[in-house]
Amino acid sequence: MIGVGLMCGTSADSVDAACVRIEGAPPRLEWTLLSFTSTPVPEDLREKIFKAFRPETGTVDLLCQLNFSLGEIFAEAALSAVRAAGLAPRQTDFIGSHGQTVWHIPPGSGMGVPSTLQLGSPAVIAQRTGIPVVSDFRARDMAAGGQGAPLVPFVDALLLTHPQKTRAVQNLGGIGNVTYLPAGRPEDAFGFDTGPANMLLDRAAEVLTGGALRCDLDGKLALAGAPDRALVEKWMTEEPYFAQKPPKSTGRELFGVQRCARYLDEMAGRAKEDILATLTALTARSAADAYRRFLPALPDEVLLCGGGARNPAVRAMLARELPECRIGLTEDAGLPGDSKEAVAFAVLAYETLHRRPGNLPAATGASEPVILGSVTV
């Protein structure tokens, strides 16, 4: 089958789309990346997405309209990837759309009924493209008692397990998450969210530069500063999430705008370079701490992916925290980091259409493997 995977992360600056040819069945899944495109999210739409992230501004009328507006841009992104692959929509079997997460309440968080909400109407995507859509991947896992995230470890185990090397695949998106892949044993893989990553760094860069920057591009500010490691240790001790045992997941509801504002208040008066260095150190420290607390053993190598994988400051601080491990990229294993999440949702949609489970209970905490998503034709 040929499918398109769609992913719009917590930065909400673009919709990533991967057109993939997939055949076979686990554990012998074969895949070929036919194209990868990134469609920018218009600034006015991005502003609405960020309003939806906050309870005080995420009104019901905004959510209602945003669901359809996101469906339009997801459809545009899918068609862009199809064209880039030299295909027509009629030659494409399916679209797998993760949607835009606006709120996530995992079990055990104490924030209310476990639930999750991703926007981006699959009906709009299907109508605009003429291609069947698989969406709402997280909900079924949560209905089975799981966290609804992370879902990508299922795909990591299929595509990135090495016969001799134990690997950790560390995604550095808005949130950091790890998949632990024991050498030659994909059936023993598991994963969880390690804590904040680009979410805090991007927001801090935007605030500290008065909106001139959306991120600490190439980690330049952090590399020019000196982290306050005592403050990082204080934050690690204060935040219960870091000590919480997996399975666990987190997001903007914990490490979003409000948390960033609190951290910035604690560093008021310091140079922006030192502030970014300290927040970057928190990303690296929280990941390394999670490895030492919760992995059976430190991996032979850590493969980075997501936007933060291109940040030299994050990579340098991770290497400092994990001197025992080789730090590399998922590209080293044949899977481009920029396209990895979108590829994952193409694979998950493929599994759904074959009526096979797509969650990894060892990662999400679900009571059983379940078929993920809803299909719109």
Report on the architecture of this protein:
The chain has 377 residues and is of the alpha/beta class. The chain has two domains: 2-147 and 339-376, ATPase, nucleotide binding domain (Nucleotidyltransferase, domain 5, 2-Layer Sandwich); 152-333, Nucleotidyltransferase, domain 5, CATH 3.30.420. 41% of the residues lie in helices and 21% in strands. The strands form three sheets. The protein has a six-stranded mixed beta sheet with strand order 3-2-1-4-7-13, sandwiched between helices. The protein has a five-stranded mixed beta sheet with strand order 10-9-8-11-12, sandwiched between helices. It has a two-stranded antiparallel sheet with strand order 5-6.
Largest sheet: 6 strands, mixed
The CATH homologous superfamily of the largest domain: ATPase, nucleotide binding domain
Shape: globular
Number of helices: 15
Q: Number of domains in the coordinates?
A: 2
Pick out the low-confidence regions: none
CATH level 1 name of the largest domain: Alpha Beta
Relative strand content? 15-25%
Mean pLDDT: 96
Distance between the termini: 16 Å
CATH architecture of the largest domain: 2-Layer Sandwich
**Spatial order of the strands forming the largest sheet:** 3-2-1-4-7-13
The H-and-E topology, N to C, reads as: EEEHHEEEHEHHEEEHHHHHHHEHEHHE
